[in-house]
Specification:
Layout (H helix, E strand, L loop, with lengths): L5 E4 L13 E4 L4 E2 L11 E2 L1 E7 L11 E6 L5 E5 L3 E5 L5 E6 L10 E4 L5 E5 L4 E5 L5 E5 L12 E6 L5 E5 L5 E5 L5 E5 L12 E7 L2 E6 L4 E6 L4 E5 L2 E2 L2 E5 L5 E6 L4 E6 L4 E6 L3 E6 L1 E2 L5 E2 L4 E4 L5 E5 L4 E7 L5
Parallel strand pairs: 22-27, 28-29
Antiparallel strand pairs: 1-2, 2-5, 3-4, 5-32, 6-7, 7-8, 8-9, 10-11, 11-12, 12-13, 14-15, 15-16, 16-17, 18-19, 19-20, 20-21, 22-23, 24-25, 25-26, 26-27, 30-31, 31-32
Length: about 325
């Protein structure tokens, strides 16, 4: 990969592992990312900028981001392995942060801002969902460790649909998705441990699209689709448009997001890359490979997409949040 044409910092604070400040990398060369540009070969997009957002220190260390979510106003919510909720403005400024009620046992892995303004966090190792007021104070919690309705074992994913219903994915004993009202009342559940269609091994990312739940089934290396009432619909077969008879492999997909133009963005933890698909499973393109430099990720856990098309990646192993700005020319 060619080196960027220009590298500049937005301030002059000391650099610590590329995380102490937000950096802008203006990229003049084409980097493999997405297909669909009329003047680029299939599978390529010209990336205009590569940014790194600040992950604030926790004592003497720089924690690793684990999850990302974007609200309707493009406010970004992140979770890190210091047990904190981090709130960013759309331009990458840290505007708020708070700790989970407890975080010695383990760290949370799923976050979303609800329609009513509350922030809901899948508090993974405490087997519950915590609801915060926008100022970071705890309003309520649901769940406890267990296999029953409304109980959890390692909840990792959380989503809310336009009707207000909340979906929580868990990867412990039950390997399931549970559906709740906005007030946390149990409605239904679906999925179980296994490798067959409709079964899970770590449903670690959930999105709602037009009455369907798309779930990344991480250890089964696939995406599954259910109706939001719980009925299994299909395994999404990922195919290359140029070779439609060949299945494209996913490598530990950990999170999934969708855009209004009908594209799915998937982050692959073991593959250390982003995969972009149409909702029918057709491969649009890919970006990234394992490493610590520009255009590389190290075991990323989460991602989200802003309304202007910027892509944010929780580059967990590199202790950074990466912002990618695809160039618009030629699209």
């Amino acid at each position: 990969m060619k080196q960027p044409a220009t590298i500049r910092s937005t301030n002059r604070l000391p650099l610590v592992g590329l995380i102490a400040v937000r950096w802008h990398f203006l990229v003049a060369s084409s980097i493999l990312l997405l297909a669909g540009c009329s003047d680029q070969p299939a599978g390529q997009l010209e990336v205009s900028k590569f940014d790194v957002w600040v992950v604030p220190r926790d004592g003497s260390r720089i924690p690793s981001p684990r999850a990302l979510s974007t609200a309707d106003d493009d406010t970004v919510y992140a979770l890190d392995n210091a047990g904190r909720v981090l709130v960013y403005s759309p331009d990458g400024k840290l505007v708020q942060k708070w700790h989970m009620p407890e975080h010695d046992v383990g760290r949370p892995e799923g976050v979303i801002r609800l329609h009513d303004g509350r922030v809901a966090v899948a508090d993974t190792h405490y087997h519950r969902v915590v609801f915060f007021h926008p100022d970071g104070t705890v309003e309520s919690m649901i769940g406890e460790k267990g296999r029953g309705e409304g109980q959890f074992v390692y909840p990792v994913a959380i989503e809310q649909d336009p009707h207000g219903f909340i979906y929580v994915g868990e990867y412990g004993d039950r390997q399931r998705i549970q559906k709740f009202t906005a007030n946390g009342e149990f409605i239904t559940q679906f999925g179980e441990q296994g490798i067959e269609p409709g079964q899970f091994q770590r449903p670690s990312g959930i999105i709602w699209i037009d009455g369907a739940i798309y779930t990344v089934d991480a250890f089964n290396n696939r995406i599954q689709v259910f109706r939001d009432t719980g009925e299994f619909e299909s395994v999404l077969h990922v195919t290359d448009l140029e070779h439609p008879d060949e299945t494209v492999a996913l490598d530990f997909p950990y999170d999934i997001r969708a855009t209004e133009d009908g594209r799915l963005f998937v982050v692959e933890n073991k593959g250390s890359r982003i995969t972009v698909l149409n909702t029918d499973g057709t491969l649009v393109g890919r970006y990234g490979d394992p490493g610590r430099g520009l255009g590389q990720f190290f075991n990323p856990w989460g991602l989200t997409v802003l309304s202007d098309g910027r892509i944010l990646v929780a580059d967990t192993g590199n202790h950074r949040i990466v912002e990618l700005t695809p160039a618009q020319s030629g699209m």
